[in-house]
Amino acid sequence: MPGPTPITSPYLVRFLYTVDHLQHKANFFCDLVPSGDSSGYNTVPRGGFSAVGISVCCDQFFDLLAPFYDDADTTFDGFTIWQRVGTTYDFLSSGSTSVAGSATGAYEKANGLCVAGRDIQNQFLPFYIYEGRFGVAFKGNSAGSLGSSVRALAGGIYNIDDDALDEEPWAWSHSRDQWFRKRWLSVVVDTNEKLRRERGLK
Fold first, then answer.
1. At residue 57, what are phi and psi to the nearest 5 degrees?
2. Which of 120, 121, 112, 119 is nearest to 187 (CA)?
């Protein structure tokens, strides 16, 4: 059996959000360059896309998440940027967002949504968000099976409708060993066992 994929990506961007006092994070490995953006950094995108500031990427990311979260119990906390130094990531920068959740109703405690796909090297490269309003357990592997908000999220991560924006993760994020995303597989909604323990459900 091969060992774990080595981490070689030079930068890590982390988007943070808090649901009912429990903070979650969405990590994206990437390459960055210094810029005049308020974050201090611009993306280094794949071919066919343009560089944008991380502060812009942050707002767009939370725009994708907004339909799943209610600002009555959820805050979008912004971003942090980290640079790889040796075998660890050192903090570089942080910033906030003005985007707020637009959903209503009770959040789904200990639930998760996974946008699954593979990178150019055919390595599994999933993306997760947690404790939104995702609905019942579900697996969809065709764009037509997804609701509009889920489809937009999957599009931002895996460009399933060939309309991803410069500021969306498809354009600039890569695997931990620096391979861009290649193809989408499915969207899965299910419970998360670690969160079930943290929320006292098991």
1. -60, -40
2. 112
In angstroms, the CA 122 to CA 5 distance is 12
Checking if the pLDDT of 1 tops 60, the result is: no
**pLDDT by residue (tens digit) across 166-180?**
999 999 999 999 999
Q: Which amino acid is at 13?
A: V
Between the alpha carbon of residue 93 and those of residues 40, 41, 80, 97, the distances in Å are 7, 9, 6, 14
Q: Could you identify the residue written with the tokens 């906030």?
A: 96
Write out the two tokens for 107.
Answer: 């959040």
Query: Residue 163's CB: how many other CB atoms inside 10 A?
Result: 11
Rounded to a whole number of angstroms, the distance between the first and last alpha carbons of the chain is 33
pTM, 2 dp:
0.95
Q: Residues 66, 67, 68, 69: is their CA dihedral positive or negative? A: positive
β strands within the chain, DSSP E: 11-19, 22-30, 32-34, 41-43, 74-85, 88-95, 111-119, 127-130, 138-140, 173-174, 181-191
Between CA 58 and CA 13 the distance in angstroms is 9
